[in-house]
Amino acid sequence: xxxxxxxxxxxxxxxxxxxxxxxxxxxxxxxxxxxxxxxxxxxxxxxxxxxxxxxxxxxxxxxxxxxxxxxxxxxxxxxxxxxxxxxxxxxxxxxxxxxxxxxxxxxxxxxxxxxxxxxxxxxxxxxxxxxxxxxxxxxxxxxxxxxxxxxxxxxxxxxxxxxxxxxxxxxxxxxxxxxxxxxxxxxxxxxxxxxxxxxxxxxxxxxxxxxxxxxxxxxxxxxxxxxxxxxxxxxxxxxxxxxxxxxxxxxxxxxxxxxxxxxxxxxxxxxxxxxxxxxxxxxxxxxxxxxxxxxxxxxxxxxxxxxxxxxxxxxxxxxxxxxxxxxxxxxxxxxxxxxxxxxxxxxxxxxxxxxxxxxxxxxxxxxxxxxxxxxxxxxxxxxxxxxxxxxxxxxxxxxxxxxxxxxxxxxxxxxxxxxxxxxxxxxxxxxxxxxxxxxxxxxxxxxxxxxxxxxxxxxxxxxxxxxxxxxxxxxxxxxxxxxxxxxxxxxxxxxxxxxxxxxxxxxxxxxxxxxxxxxxxxxxxxxxxxxxxxxxxxxxxxxxxxxxxxxxxxxxxxxxxxxxxxxxxxxxxxxxxxxxxxxxxxxxxxxxxxxxxxxxxxxxxxxxxxxxxxxxxxxxxxxxxxxxxxxxxxxxxxxxxxxxxxxxxxxxxxxxxxxxxxxxxxxxxxxxxxxxxxxxxxxxxxxxxxxxxxxxxxxxxxxxxxxxxxxxxxxxxxxxxxxxxxxxxxxxxxxxxxxxxxxxxxxxxxxxxxxxxxxxxxxxxxxxxxxxxxxxxxxxxxxxxxxxxxxx
Amino acid sequence: xxxxxxxxxxxxxxxxxxxxxxxxxxxxxxxxxxxxxxxxxxxxxxxxxxxxxxxxxxxxxxxxxxxxxxxxxxxxxxxxxxxxxxxxxxxxxxxxxxxxxxxxxxxxxxxxxxxxxxxx
Lengths: 792, 120
Hints:
The complex is a heterodimer of chains A (792) and B (120). With 792 residues, chain A is α+β, with helices and mostly antiparallel strands. Chain A has 21 helices and 23 strands. Chain A has five domains: 2-110, no CATH class; 132-233, PAS domain (Beta-Lactamase, 2-Layer Sandwich), CATH 3.30.450; 239-403, GAF domain (Beta-Lactamase, 2-Layer Sandwich); 425-527, Beta-Lactamase (2-Layer Sandwich), CATH 3.30.450; 627-790, Heat Shock Protein 90 (2-Layer Sandwich). Helix content of chain A is 53%, strand content 20%. In chain A, strands 8-7-6-11-10-9 form a six-stranded antiparallel beta sheet. In chain A, a hairpin with an 8-residue loop joins strand 4 and strand 5 (226-233). Chain A is rod-shaped and about 240 Å long. Chain B is of the alpha/beta class and 120 residues long. Helices cover 48% and strands 18% of the residues of chain B. Chain B has a five-stranded parallel beta sheet, sandwiched between helices. In chain B, helix 3 (58-68) links the parallel strand 3 and strand 4. In chain B, helix 2 packs parallel to helix 3. Chain A binds chain B through residues 564, 567-572, 574-580, 582-583, 586, 600, 603-604, 736, 738-739, and chain B through 7-8, 10-11, 13-14, 17-18, 31, 52-55, 79-82, 99-104.
């Protein structure tokens, strides 16, 4: 408000002045010529200090005042002209002054604005410099800092004032110093206007920091050009790059390495070089999972860490021991920025050799920690979480690699094993395609079948395949190529290239491809000839054993049967003997009755006696206790004798016929026994001819023997019994022969006697047509030429 | 009346002599078939049956007779005289068993015993 009042007062002042002059002039009646200078002063001052509106208003007021005064005081014509002139002068003067003032003011304003602008730019520039996130500075071409921002000082870790005492080259690492120096020189000479590079810089005390350095010439006409220096801290980016590079390097190693042992050093080296560590060690968990053992190690060439990294020292760490042990136990990577500050027992050795920082991460495979990698550095450092994360990732990848490599090695080993089995197996192995073509045959198979690969492939194998399918067909098994994955063994007979016959056992197994279709077939071929032979021999032995057992059983059965027969025969005979003798004993019989009963008794007693004689004879012969006394025997005489006796004693009506060779040689024999033989055969012939018929006896010389035949026209022997007639206790019991009495020993005794003489006995028979028994007896030695003897 | 079935002539004569002396009428059969025919035709009170006979044996003959005339008494008189034989014959349906050789008194007693009993 006061300002406004002041302004109003100032604006009103000229009008008050004009009104005052007008009032005085009108009151005094003075000429307007007198008042005119006063008006002029007011207008000029207004023109000098006020704006155009105020000036026009003041001017109008002054003109009105002059015109009124001239009308009041003077004659209208002459005074009016003066007044117009005065007004014109007033207007020209005021306008001129105002115009001049305008110009002056305009010039003044421009200058002022320029001055303000300059000040503002400077401040802004300053602010920009200070606020920049990159380090900015201005240096001379000689590298002397003229100006630096705070950021630059911070990056380099040097105070601002201190920094200005030294030059750009002084904060550049020795490595990059010459390059930067050259750049400054070229920029100074104007040869280039901008230079950029990534260099390492540091203050006199700090760690070298990777920076991006850009130097640009400032367009300045001064003799010594100024250079703008931009310094960007790229350590974060470098760190990430290094971590990425480390991971890439690790991956490269594990991609190219065949085993962890082979790649371990390279992996450890990559981690060290890329991540700037001095020593790396791999500790592996032992088989018992009791402790960690130092397996591989890597150190920088210039690292002097003593024997800390020597795996040969067989260093071990228990679970939970030291950082490495803790990492193993927890399975989580961990770091120690400064070993001095973390006094673990394990760390003492590291500290002794000057190692200060440590990070360790687990190597994980299949969810379990199989080892720990430890990185050690000389310098205390702040270990970021992202590094730990990265190392953990590397640990997983290394673990997977170790697992893969071990699997691959196991596979290689197993493949080698399989190959060895294939090559050295005593069993023949053939690999054949799905359509039966022989792809591969192992040495054993070629050796077994005595073929080379060529004949094996095109000749022997197709034969074998056919034989397999036939044998399989017989055993109701699938053919070899039927695609059945589990086929049973088939045994077949096959000839070798050398013509030997072998028993082969073939077992086919089809190996499916990934889609499950049979890709090829593996055939195991075993030579089971020996086994088969043994089996056959065993079967034979078993058979003969079984037969022997059967014979024994039969013998046993036959003996029991014989006992039954013998006792039956005895008791039948004894029935008559006992019954009739009881009758005679009791008396009261007629004399002819007694005679008749005595005859029955005698006959049956004789029968019992015969039975006993036969049994004893046979027993003597079989036990070898009966010998024959050889002498010259005329068989014809024996035959005639027997026939004569039979004809005289037999009640059965048969007709005896004799067909005796009159020139029959003399034989060597036991006459009584030969009589027994012929007699037995004749009795049989009579017994088994219940309906009568002919009994024909014939003799004939046959080589070194005499052949004797006894043929009847009786019942004959059924075919199923003819093979057993010479066996002990076997009697023909079927049909009409059932009731024919006998001991069942007669023919057995006959056969024994014939064989004791060195002859043979056999029988021909047809049921209903009769039987013919033939036996031979060797000639006497002196009868070898019977014709001579007979003719002599 | 007693039927004696036996293929052995001596046994036939003995039995006939003993049984006739004891007052029985005696019929003789020489084999099983003949025994069956005579048994069915003549209805003897007791049959004295041998086992080992040509053609049809005594057991088969007994079986046939018993199937026609269950009341007919059959004594098996056999020289098969092991212990098991006696059981075998009784199981086959014999009313009594007489082992050969036999005492003449035993023969008469077994026949008397069976003829004294009323027929079933």
